[in-house]
Amino acid sequence: MDAKASSVMEKITSLAKRRGFIFQGSEIYGGYQGFWDYGPAGVEMKNNIKKEWWKYTVYDREDVVGIDAAIIMNPTVWEKSGHLKAFTDPLVECKVCHKRVRADNEEAVADHEKTHKDKKDIWTEPKTFNLMTEVLLGTTEPKEKSYLRGEITQGAFVDFRNVVDSTRVRIPFGIAQIGKAFRNEITPGNLTFRSREFEQMELEYFVKPDEEDSKKIFEYWKEKRKRWYEDLGIDPKKLRFHDHEPEKRAHYAKYATDLEYEAPFGWSEFEGIHHRGDFDLGNHNLSYRDNLTGEEYTPWVIETSGGVDRAMLFFLIDAYREDGERIYLKLNPKIAPYKVAVFPLLANKPELLAKAKEIYKNLKQKLNVVWDDRGNIGKRYFAQDEIGTPWCVTVDFESLNDATVTVRDRDSAKQERIAIDNLTEYFQNKLAA
Ligand code: ATP
Ligand 1 centroid vs 326 CA: distance in angstroms? Predict the structure, then answer.
């Protein structure tokens, strides 16, 4: 990473910590590589991202249902899915200092070679490492070896028959899921970009085996996924598809593409959209019977698999703005941690405090609102800008006389007077716009 890019990442990392978005996991004990905690602002934003995804993928449609499968599954699942054999990354080790990096990460390889400029032939041959995280279950020896799921995908396949039998879905239909996955990543890094514990949001969309139709459905989901990120504010110029060449795709994949974002550390995968044919249901010997036509077949699967943590990181990076002294996060209000901040102009005036608290409590019934009465008004604006709160409400002495407040807009920093009675509607309209 060049100096400019690493300074952007440093700024984001530092803002994420000071404003309560992302903390290093177990920080008081020196941290734990590849594990992160989400703070008070972070958990709100992450939940908003998940809510928006669920709304778009499940609630706004009639052909998708959700599940929440267990993190630990019968190990046979991983045997059948091929993960115990094939879920690997190639790794090379530096013969000089024993640092290991992914053999396919050209940037990391080149960066590391710079540290041993005088030496040649520093790398070992690539070795493959299994990414599955083992766990031992049971109270008596020998304990049973199992795995933390390396991807949430398998849940949708293993539950396929139960979903078909217990609901009214008919092909084509999708199973959506959001949940944690774990990988023994060799080189975790770039904040949460590559973590050992992370969250995925995935759709497995089951279709009838048909080359032409399934290709159309694949293209449909490709565009739909890109639009989701754009609608939530990602700069379209920083998004692109990276189609996998036939020779680079998994042997079963008919088509595969990565939706990539131009991060400070280079174009990086946001989400994978894959046409997986009948590979997955076939692995588990599952098929589908159409109740109306009596046809029986193994459905094909189009998968959209995105990372919640990567989405959040890229939303933060994309929203980061510096305007002179001012730093603000231009987050779409739908995913901003809080929609509105409410403060009394002065914290030591009981009448202002009481009025501001009343407004805060009223707004809180409808919106995610945050209270702030620390420091002076300038500092509060500064803090809320960095958190990405779209609107700040200030209760001043005029408010006590004319029942209006100042509403300040995050992006323009402009202020206007709004009647207290109209506030909820005012913000709801803005959010719906
Ligand atoms: P990469 O090549 O970057 O390791 P991948 O191709 O292995 O990613 P998939 O298996 O397709 O990733 O997983 C789907 C999505 O899950 C990714 O697009 C990403 O958003 C997320 N994801 C995968 N691995 C991680 C990780 N270690 N940390 C955070 N998110 C991850």
Answer: 34
Ligand 1 residue neighbourhood (C-beta within 6 Å): 151, 183, 185, 194-195, 198, 200, 269-272, 305-307, 309-310
Q: Which two tokens stand for residue 27?
A: 């920080």
Identify the pLDDT of residue 225.
Answer: 98
Residue nearest to atom 20 of ligand 1 (CA): 307
CATH architecture for the domain at 3-75+146-318: 2-Layer Sandwich (3.30)
Under 8 Å between Cβ of 270 and 257: no
pTM of the model: 0.92
* Residue of minimum CA distance from atom 10 in ligand 1: 151
**Residue 329 near residue 313 (C-beta atoms within 8 A):** no
CATH architecture of 340-432: 3-Layer(aba) Sandwich (3.40)
pLDDT at 129 over 80: no
pLDDT of residue 1 exceeding 70, the answer is no
Atom of ligand 1 nearest to the CA of 195: 28
Which residue ranges make up each domain of the chain? 3-75+146-318, 340-432
In degrees and rounded to multiples of 5, residue 287 shows phi and psi of: -140, 180
In this prediction, residue 106 carries a pLDDT of 81
The token pair at 198 is 């992370």
pLDDT tens string 398-426: 999 999 999 999 999 999 999 999 999 99
